[in-house]
Amino acid sequence: MRAALIVAHTDRQQITRMAGAAAEQLIRAGFEVRMLPSDAADCELPAGVRVFDHTRAAQDTEIVLVFGGDGTFLRAAEMARPAGVAMLGVNFGRVGFLAEAEPDALTSTIAAIVERNYDVEERVSIDATIWQGDQQLASAWALNEASLERTSRERMLEVSVQVDDQPLLRFGCDGVLCATPTGSTAYAFSAGGPIVWPTVDALIVVPNAAHALFARPVVVDPDSVIEIELLRGEHAAVLSCDGRRSIAVPPNGRVQVRRGAHPVRIVRLSDWNFTERLVTKFQLPVRGFRDGRPHIGALSAFDHDPNGTDTNGTDPKVTGPSGTDSSGTDPSGSDAVDRGASESVIE
């Protein structure tokens, strides 16, 4: 039997109602539908939905269907990634770069899942390990970014950055982000990093509020190993992965970041164009202010046709009372003012 896991941000009634509608449509199509205990308790669900804990919920499923914003998507990825299951997001967030579908297309979205009318795209993830000397203390992973951050507001971190065992940067800062192309539109973007198309194979290093003359973000080979070391013995830090998993980094500790062993698999329902999504989500001004100006020819007072009339069909030689033309305007007034103003500027 085909199976699907539904993960929902249940604080909104619209989401709980639509998650229930999706579950009902999938059950009618012969799917086993699963949910987490906390999500199932808050949703309006049909009979037949099975409840699984997070350690087993995504195992042996075909798809993880996510109702919410990017935060809910990242929560669902914690279950989908180790199981190697593809994810499809229905966007209820403010931006929703990770989501593929919109709520008003829910019925057709579920139909595409049932008919297997979709593609799967693999996204680079990050694996991060924390070391002190030769001892590995902890490890974590991220889809968007692994961010080394200070724990004390009074003191900056003093760090060195190496790429493939070669020193690259050293500065005081609030932190350093190591991001994926998928995460380049998230925290890394807010910290001044570049937007990188998600299909690009690369890793991104972004200094966060660095006190240095050179503190530019850099894009490195996806197979490179990035190492960030805390240089002062009295300064501790914290490593935050996707803003969801935080690990303490002791003084003189170091963080090693590399391409993740497992990608995150994301469902695509149509010919997906990141450029269009970028323009839409960020409301980019694809039209400049000059696009609204008339053409040079339209700036002429009269554009005569062979019959002696201008382009609006009036005779420019016909004037009305008080020296106005047939439209009621003074042909010498406003133009004379403009010319005078222009001449005074030139002088």
What's the arrangement of secondary structure elements?
Layout: E1 3-8, H1 13-28, E2 32-35, H2 37-42, E3 50-51, E4 63-68, H3 70-83, E5 86-91, H4 106-114, E6 119-123, E7 126-132, E8 135-142, E9 145-150, E10 157-163, E11 166-173, E12 175-179, H5 187-190, E13 203-208, E14 218-220, E15 226-230, E16 237-241, E17 245-249, E18 254-259, E19 264-268, H6 274-282, H7 333-346
Parallel strand pairs: 1-2, 1-4, 2-3, 4-5
Antiparallel strand pairs: 6-19, 7-8, 7-18, 9-12, 9-16, 10-11, 10-15, 12-13, 13-14, 15-18, 16-17
Helix pairs in contact: 1-4
Structural commentary:
A hairpin with a 2-residue loop joins strand 10 and strand 11. By secondary structure, this protein is α+β, with helices and mostly antiparallel strands. The C terminus is likely disordered. Helices cover 21% and strands 30% of the residues. It folds into three domains: 139 residues, Probable inorganic polyphosphate/atp-NAD kinase, domain 1 (Rossmann fold, 3-Layer(aba) Sandwich); 137 residues, Tumour Suppressor Smad4 (Sandwich), CATH 2.60.200; 37 residues, no CATH class. The protein starts with a strand and ends with a helix.
